[in-house]
């Protein structure tokens, strides 16, 4: 029979093993999420989840971890840094209308696979030490309120932009969970330290952070360029700029990220020069090239059609040049109606800009 002292010792060991596996922090939370349920239900009731219908499914399981995995008593929450330390370079990419901006988390290997394997190794280590136990690994793979659980495990607080913030590590990190039936001692929840700061709210390109701690996904560039499968609302396209997969503005501006540490994880290093790639170059990828160069990457989620859609919008926002116009014209008759519509919009933007310039020249 496991005693409370046994559980205390096991909890300490779990944190040590997590550190050995490359996690920057490991914490343990209970399963009561009552204080987050009302916020989630109101967000869903207002339709602010957009077309992400999966957010509304399995409500009781999302709200109650022990219903998602019967027998769950504790949640072991982990964080793994992915920050590149190159915030200046990120700002430079955003300022260059001819370059493509890819969210920093998607520049390397797909984090889902990396964290899932490490969490499984952690579970194996626990079983080797404590004997067989009930558990399940999650990395964005089920209805889990991961930020609330991470907060309760002491990993950080939920910021006004809805990302988790750690006072010693900023917000450039991934989260993963190990649901377990072990009665481990829980950690103290993290306290909030956003204060009166509202930089993330003010900088959001599309005004998606509609109130502190409230993001309307229907306006969020990450949602529009990744989760949305249809046409991007026309009124939002000019605001997307050159962001072709996700958006980091709210994290780049956050003062707590001055404490973020460059990740030593090889899997999160930039692949295929995506941190410096040009829009015209990426728009020229064939579907085969897209599949080849995004193998093992989170970018695969948007699909080739969505990738071209996003790039067409960014090219529509780029400075007018023969190269940009030629690239867009090359996809004018693309088999996908979605791509054709966004290409037509982009071309109309450049033709409109030319006409306006001609009028200005004539005085």
How much is the radius of gyration in Å? Answer: 22 Å
The number of domains is 2
Tally of strands: 10
What percent of residues adopt helix (DSSP H or I)? Answer: 40-55%
What spatial order of strands do you see in the largest sheet? 1-2-7-4
Beginning-to-end CA distance, first to last residue: 88 Å
The tally of helices reads 16
Structural class: alpha+beta
Low-confidence stretches: none
Gross morphology = elongated
Average the pLDDT over all residues and give the rounded result.
Answer: 93
Largest sheet descriptor: 4 strands, antiparallel
Q: What sequence of helices (H) and strands (E) makes up the elements? A: HEHHHEHEHEHEEEHEEHHEHHHHHH
Beta-strand content: 5-15%
Offer a quick outline of the entry.
Helices cover 43% and strands 11% of the residues. With 363 residues, it is an alpha+beta fold. Pathway: tRNA modification; tRNA-queuosine biosynthesis.
Explained architecture:
With 363 residues, this protein is α+β, with helices and mostly antiparallel strands. The protein folds into 2 domains: 4-83 and 109-180, no CATH class; 199-262 and 270-354, no CATH class. Helices cover 43% and strands 11% of the residues. It is built from 16 helices and 10 strands. The chain has a 4-stranded antiparallel beta sheet, sandwiched between helices. Helix 14 packs parallel to helix 16 (337-362).
